[in-house]
Amino acid sequence: MDNVTPLGGDVYEIDTRMAGYSGVTAGYLILGDRPCLVETGTSTSAPVVRDALTSLGVGPEDLATVVVTHIHLDHAGGVGDIAGYYPSAEIVVHEKGARHLADPSRLMASARMVWGDKLDSLFGSLAPTDAARIRALGDTGSVDLGGGRELASHYSPGHAKHHVGLLDSATGDLYVGDAAGVYLPETGDLRPATPPPDFDLQTALDSVALFGALGPQRLLFSHYGPVADVATTLERSADELRVWVDLTRQAHSEGMDLDHAVAMVREKTRERYSAMASENEETAERFELLSGAPSNVSGIMHWLDRTKARNP
Ligand SMILES: [Zn+2]
C-alpha cells in the first residue's frame, strides 16, 4: 500500500491520512512475534490503519498490543475503534491517560471546547475501550514484542502530563510522540508543540534531555517520520522550546492579548522555518495544522499565567 513505508528492523510507518492529509500523523507497526501498533491516529483514520495492518499480514486476532505515547486525539483518537477491530490486543497508555480511554466523555468535551466544529472533520470521536483491556504504565514500563524484544516506556511530560517515550530494545528506535516537537521531513523544519493545558517549560526540557540520555539510534516522530541525526535534532527541540517561550514571555509581559501575541510570535519565528517561505502552500498549511502558532502561544501563555498565580 502506498501509505506504508518499511523503515527496517520490522518497523513500518503508516500514514494515517489524518483529515485527508498525507504526512501529518504517522502510526508505526512493529512486526515481531507479538505485533505492536504505536499510535492509532484519529478515530476517522482507524479504517486506514486497519487496511495497512491487513496489507502487512496482521489479521484481527494477530495484533498483540496497541500503545499510545499520549492521549491527544491525533495519537489516540482511534484507540476505541482499533480495540474493536483487534479483540486480542492489550491497550497500553500512561496511568494519567488510562481512565480517559475507558471513559472519553470529559476528554471529548474539552476537545470540543478547543476545536469547536472542526473537531469532527479533524479528529472524529474517541470511542470507549473496555477498562479490563487497558494496561496503565507508571514512570517506566515495558511492552513485550516477542522473541526477547521489548519496548521500554519512559515518562516524558511537558507537552502533556500523560506522555511517554518508547525505546525499542532491538533497533534503538525512540518513539518520541510530541515531546520533541513536530518535524517536517520535506524541509527539515522542527517546531515545538506546547499546547494548553499541560505545557511546562522545565518539564518539557527535562523530557528532551531524558530522550538524549537514553541513547537512541533514531527518533520516530508521530509528526512526522524517522530522523537519524539524534543529537542535533534533540538540541534543536530544546532550542525551539526556548525561542517560543522567550517570545511569548515578551508578549505576555507587554500585556498583549492572545491574537496579538500569536501574530508577533508568528512573525518573529517565520524565518526559522523554510516551510513558511515555501512556494507550496500546502506544506505551510500542514505545518500550521500540526503545531499551530495559536495553540503553541496559548499553551505557553496558560503556563505563564499559572506560574504567576503560584508566585505573584
Ligand atoms: Zn499531543
UniProtKB/TrEMBL annotation:
- Report the Pfam families cross-referenced here: Lactamase_B
The record ties this protein, via SMART domains, to:
Lactamase_B (SM00849)
Q: Which residues form the Metallo-beta-lactamase domain?
A: 24-223
Tell me the superkingdom of the source: Bacteria
Name this polypeptide is given: MBL fold metallo-hydrolase
Which organism was this protein described from?
Answer: Sphaerisporangium flaviroseum
Q: What residue ranges carry the coiled-coil annotation?
A: none
